[in-house]
Automatic annotation (TrEMBL):
The keyword Ribosomal protein does not apply. This is Uncharacterized protein. Keywords: ATP-binding, Nucleotide-binding. It holds the Pfam family GHMP_kinases_N. Residues 103-184 form the GHMP kinase N-terminal domain. It comes from the Eukaryota. The lineage of its organism: Eukaryota, Viridiplantae, Streptophyta, Embryophyta, Tracheophyta. Gene3D superfamilies: 3.30.230.120. Residues 259-324 form the GHMP kinase C-terminal domain. It comes from Brassica napus (Rape).
């Protein structure tokens, strides 16, 4: 998915893609010392291109960083639908985090400069990790431009992506960033022992062919997925027993899911996916999850399919164990409800030899 291009100066440019991700099982336990299984999908992606240049330049996107409007009403409508934030801030943040990490770890960087451009087709506010995809793709460009891919361990890179987002006040966990840095299907163990000792989890790539056929449901105008974690996090920190025990159970679903995938036990996967959503609903409550998000899950369940959020809301991953006839019923239900349904295309691992060597 990565490709070298030629800039207008004839010097080699670098372009990397980072794919949207689906949290398959165990989310949101990644921020509660739990376990998760996630994978990247080829349906949507963000791309970042780096070209050598005289100065460091971060190029605004002509749509996502729009600063020219037809009228005041156009500006207002744009802000109400898209918010204030484009991708420029994300690119600037990862540049800062990358530079500071290299400085702190005595990694020497050459003094040449660059221009960064980005593009994305990941639907906004769908819980498919659109922001981290931009940051992850940019980090890959920086690693190659400065030729330090072998010096920054693969396991550390998701932390850099997350730290860049934290710079901007984005509340999130490592799961999405691990999935996008590694690519493919990944089992993640975020137990406190590992996090305290290593500063990161234990990440185990799995064979993408273990996954059954899956579908994605999302809305054209989804709700905001960025506010979902807040109250539950505080209750967990306060020692709320319901939240602590429920989150532990959510993490265990990923362990059971790994076994079910390896054994191709699809009936078990149905149970685990549904249980994952039910536990989330129990902890967060309907008001926090949002009526539209719950309806996407219920649409799938009405035809007997398993369903759960891909992330914190905005999109749902669905498994139809009965095959094409059940998918047809799901298509009809989604059409009635005004939701978009499409088959999931699994994006394979994006690791190269240098990445694997960096595992140490």
């Amino acid at each position: 998915m990565d490709q070298d291009l030629k800039s207008t100066t004839g010097t080699a440019a670098i372009e990397h893609r980072s794919f949207a991700r689906i949290g398959f099982l165990g989310n949101p336990s990644d921020v509660y010392f739990g376990r998760t299984i996630s994978f990247t999908i080829g349906n949507f992606w963000a791309s970042v291109k780096l070209e050598p240049s005289e100065h460091v330049i971060i190029k605004p996107h002509p749509f996502h960083d729009l600063v020219q409007f037809n009228s005041l009403d156009h500006l207002l409508n744009r802000l109400e639908n898209e918010g204030y934030y484009g991708g420029v801030r994300l690119l600037m943040a990862i540049c800062k985090v990358f530079r500071n990490y290299c400085k702190d770890n005595a990694i020497q960087l050459h003094q040449r400069n660059f221009t960064l451009y980005y593009n994305t087709n990941i639907p906004r506010q769908t819980g498919l990790s659109g922001s981290s995809a931009i940051v992850s793709a940019a980090l890959s460009c920086l690693l190659d431009f400065y030729n330090v891919r072998h010096l920054i361990k693969l396991q550390v890179r998701p932390n850099l992506v997350l730290n860049a987002e934290k710079e901007l006040g984005i509340v999130a966990g490592l799961q999405d960033r691990v999935a996008q840095v590694y690519g493919g299907l990944v089992h993640m163990d975020f137990s406190k022992e590992h996090m305290d000792k290593l500063g990161h989890g234990i990440y185990t790539p799995m064979d993408i062919t273990l996954l059954p056929p899956l579908h994605l449901i999302y809305a054209e105008n989804p709700s905001d997925s960025g506010k979902v974690h807040s109250r539950v996090r505080q209750r967990w920190l306060d020692g709320d027993e319901l939240i602590i025990t429920s989150m532990e159970e959510v993490g265990k679903l990923a362990e059971e899911g790994r076994t079910a995938l390896l054994e191709k036990d699809h009936s078990k996967l149905v149970q685990l996916m549904n249980r994952n959503f039910d536990l989330r609903r129990k902890m967060f409550g309907d008001e926090c999850l949002g009526a539209m998000n719950i309806e996407m899950v219920e649409v799938a369940r009405r035809v007997g399919a398993a369903s759960k959020f891909t992330g914190s809301g905005g999109a749902v991953v669905v498994f139809c164990p009965e095959g094409p006839s059940q998918v047809k019923l799901l298509e009809e239900e989604c059409k009635k409800s005004g939701f978009i349904l499409e088959p999931v295309k699994i994006a394979p691992s994006c690791l190269n030899d240098s990445d694997i060597q960096s595992l140490g």
